[in-house]
Amino acid sequence: xxxxxxxxxxxxxxxxxxxxxxxxxxxxxxxxxxxxxxxxxxxxxxxxxxxxxxxxxxxxxxxxxxxxxxxxxxxxxxxxxxxxxxxxxxxxxxxxxxxxxxxxxxxxxxxxxxxxxxxxxxxxxxxxxxxxxxxxxxxxxxxxxxxxxxxxxxxxxxxxxxxxxxxxxxxxxxxxxxxxxxxxxxxxxxxxxxx
Length: 195
Fold this sequence. Notes:
This protein is mostly helical. The protein is built from ten helices and two strands.
């Protein structure tokens, strides 16, 4: 972003261009470790997220790769970094606070770089005792979505439930509970199956 300032004395426009501070590059394990601990102090991260973050701060050569791996091992040994714990906390938070369905949580964890085996185990545990239909209703309540008045509102609620990680079947059940016309539900179900 460029800021302009007019100088009355010299009848000219002065341009102020902010400059970016160059990213600090870490060449030793201890300083990279301190950086990683500070990053984990700001928020929980997966191994893949932390590696991505640290790779930007080391030389782009074999030594930089080795530094990142050494710090990751050190953090795992000290129990600061654990994808299973991260996935369990993330799944519980998304289920209890955001009211998201299991599909959304699985997708989000994959994006964050958690291994598929860990995701499957943790999400199965997190959603074992959950009635997804009740969770979908809780999601609608959280979003303050009321009974749809027309076809457009019905489609909007249906797509919202799909984005929140609920299956087509659950979305249809919830909408049936809201007394939506069967014809509209059939059209939405066919549309979802085509995609």
